[in-house]
C-alpha cells in the first residue's frame, strides 16, 4: 500500500519551476493556526542537500519507528543531484505520507529549509532532523512522548545531556570544534540557554502552537539556536541521544558554514540596530583614509584652502563608501543604482553647510590641526547620518516586510 497526502491518487503533482513536489493534492500549506482532526500527531521536517544515498534507509527506519497514521514526513530539498527523485521513488513504498518541496533558491540555507518545512507542517508536533542518519529515527517517538508528558514547548535531542554522546562526529578535531562552539554559544547567550545542554543540536521537536514562524530569521545550520534566542520557548525538555556516524555522502560542514555561523552569532547577540550601527561605522571608517589622503594632497600639494579641499575630499569619500556599499550589500537594493547614487551623494553632502563652518571654527579659532578637525567633524556627521541613512536609501519596502520573513540586515553608508 502506498501512502499519499491529501489525495486518493498516488501520482505526484508536478509543479511549476521552483515549486515543490507533492505526493497528492497541490493544496497550499496550512496556516499557523490551522489544525483539524485529520492532522497527524507529528510532522517530521527533514532538510536535505545531496543525500540521495541515505533516503531509502531513512524512510524505512522512520516507518518502523513511528506508529501507523500518526505522522507525515516533509522533505525540503536544496539538492543539486537527484535526491528529490530518489525521495519520490522511495515514497511509493512508504506507509507514511511523504511530501517533497524542492527549492531552486536555498534562501537561508538549512535553517531556511527548516522554516519552509514549518510552514507546510500539519502536525501538533514538528520534529526536525537531518537526512544523513546521524540523528537516529528511533529517537523521534521519544521526543514527542517527552514533550507531551512534560508539557514542554521544545524537546532537544542532546549529545551532551547525561547518557548522550557525540561519538559520531568524525575525528577529534570535529568534536573539539563542536564542544568549543557550544561553549562559546552558551557564554554569549547564558540567560537564553541556561536550560539547554546542546543548543546547536539539529535534532529537536517543537510544539506547533509555540512557533511564531515570522519571528525566525534563519541563516545557516543552527536553526535551534535561532528559535531559542528569538522565540524564548517556555518549558524545555531534553532527551539524550548518541550522535551517529554519517551513513553515506559527505559532510556539509565547511569554512563557509563556519563563517556563516559566526555571523549568525553576532546578529543574534548584538541585535539588529546595534549590528547596523557596527556595519555602518566600519564602512564609514574605511572612508576616512581616502578622505584624509585627498584632503592632505589637495591642501599640501595642490595648495587649495583646507575648507575647499575638505569639500572635494568629501566627494572622494562618498564615492568610495558608495562603491563599497554596493559591492558588499548587493542583496538589499530596493531602488535603481542611479537613484541610489543620487540620494547617497545628496545625503553625503547635506551636512557640508554645517561641517565646513565647524571645521573652520576648530582650525581658525580653537587651533586644531585641519586633519584632526576634519576627523572630528566626520565623526559627528556619522552619528547624525546613522539615524537616517538606512531608512532613506536602503529601507525595505512595506510590502516586502509583510510578505517575507525579515532577516537581519546592515545599514549602508558611512563617514563622508
Structural description of this entry:
- The chain is of the alpha/beta class and 416 residues long.
- 47% of the residues lie in helices and 10% in strands.
- Helix 8 (272-301) packs across helix 9, helix 8 runs antiparallel to helix 12 and helix 11 packs antiparallel against helix 12 (370-392).
Helix content: 40-55%
Percentage beta strand: 5-15%
Q: Which class of secondary structure composition applies to the elements? A: alpha/beta
Distance between the termini: 69 Å
Secondary-structure element series:
EEEHEHEHEHEHEHEHHHHHHH
Q: Mean of the pLDDT scores?
A: 77
Strand order of the largest sheet: 1-2-5-4-3-6-8-7-9
Shape estimate: elongated
Total of DSSP H or I helical runs spanning 4+ residues:
13
Main sheet attributes: strand count, strand direction, barrel closure: 9 strands, mixed
Overall strand count? 9
The whole-angstrom Rg is 27 Å
Low-pLDDT residue spans: 1-36, 396-416
Keywords:
disordered N terminus; elongated; alpha/beta; 9 strands; 416 residues; disordered C terminus; nine-stranded mixed sheet
Present the secondary structure layout.
Blueprint: E1 12-13, E2 21-23, E3 42-48, H1 55-65, E4 71-77, H2 83-91, E5 98-102, H3 109-120, E6 125-128, H4 140-150, E7 154-158, H5 171-188, E8 204-207, H6 223-231, E9 236-240, H7 255-270, H8 272-301, H9 306-328, H10 337-349, H11 352-366, H12 370-392, H13 398-403
Parallel strand pairs: 3-4, 3-6, 4-5, 7-9
Antiparallel strand pairs: 1-2, 2-5, 6-8, 7-8
Helix pairs in contact: 7-8, 8-9, 8-12, 9-10, 11-12
Amino acid at each position: 500500500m502506498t501512502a499519499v497526502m491529501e489525495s486518493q491518487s498516488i501520482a505526484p503533482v508536478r509543479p511549476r519551476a521552483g515549486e515543490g513536489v507533492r505526493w497528492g493534492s497541490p493544496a497550499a500549506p496550512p496556516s499557523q493556526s490551522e489544525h483539524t482532526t485529520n492532522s497527524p500527531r507529528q510532522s517530521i521536517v527533514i532538510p536535505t542537500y545531496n543525500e540521495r544515498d541515505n533516503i531509502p534507509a531513512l524512510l524505512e527506519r522512520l516507518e518502523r519507528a513511528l506508529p501507523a497514521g500518526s505522522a507525515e514526513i516533509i522533505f525540503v530539498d536544496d539538492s543539486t543531484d537527484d535526491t528529490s527523485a530518489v525521495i519520490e521513488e522511495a515514497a511509493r513504498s512508504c506507509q507514511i505520507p511523504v511530501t517533497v518541496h524542492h527549492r531552486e533558491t536555498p534562501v537561508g540555507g538549512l535553517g531556511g529549509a527548516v522554516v519552509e518545512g514549518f510552514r507546510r507542517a500539519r502536525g501538533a508536533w514538528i520534529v526536525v532532523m537531518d537526512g544523513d542518519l546521524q540523528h537516529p529515527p528511533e529517537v523521534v517517538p521519544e521526543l514527542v512522548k517527552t514533550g507531551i508528558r512534560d508539557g514542554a514547548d521544545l524537546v532537544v535531542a542532546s549529545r551532551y545531556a547525561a547518557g548522550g554522546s557525540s561519538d559520531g562526529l568524525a575525528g577529534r578535531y570535529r568534536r573539539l570544534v563542536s564542544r568549543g562552539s557550544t561553549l562559546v554559544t552558551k557564554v554569549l547567550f547564558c540567560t537564553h540557554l541556561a536550560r539547554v545542554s546542546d543548543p546547536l543540536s539539529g535534532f529537536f521537536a517543537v510544539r506547533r502552537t509555540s512557533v511564531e514562524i515570522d519571528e525566525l530569521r534563519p541563516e545557516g545550520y543552527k536553526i535551534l539556536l535561532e528559535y531559542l534566542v528569538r522565540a524564548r520557548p517556555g518549558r524545555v525538555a531534553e532527551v539524550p541521544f548518541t550522535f551517529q556516524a554519517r551513513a553515506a555522502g559527505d559532510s556539509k560542514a565547511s569554512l563557509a558554514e563556519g563563517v556563516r555561523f559566526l555571523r549568525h552569532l553576532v546578529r543574534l547577540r548584538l541585535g539588529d540596530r546595534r549590528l547596523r550601527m557596527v556595519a555602518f561605522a566600519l564602512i564609514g571608517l574605511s572612508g576616512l583614509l581616502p578622505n584624509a589622503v585627498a584632503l592632505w594632497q589637495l591642501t599640501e600639494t595642490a595648495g587649495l584652502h583646507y575648507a575647499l579641499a575638505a569639500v572635494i575630499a568629501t566627494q572622494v569619500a562618498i564615492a568610495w563608501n558608495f562603491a563599497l556599499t554596493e559591492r558588499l550589500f548587493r542583496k538589499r537594493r530596493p531602488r535603481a543604482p542611479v537613484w541610489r547614487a543620487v540620494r547617497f551623494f545628496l545625503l553625503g553632502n547635506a551636512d557640508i553647510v554645517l561641517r565646513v563652518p565647524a571645521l573652520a571654527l576648530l582650525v581658525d579659532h580653537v587651533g586644531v590641526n585641519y586633519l584632526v578637525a576634519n576627523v572630528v567633524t566626520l565623526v559627528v556627521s556619522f552619528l547624525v547620518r546613522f539615524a537616517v541613512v538606512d531608512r532613506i536609501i536602503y529601507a525595505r519596502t512595506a510590502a516586502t516586510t509583510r510578505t517575507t520573513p525579515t532577516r537581519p540586515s546592515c545599514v549602508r553608508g558611512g563617514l563622508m
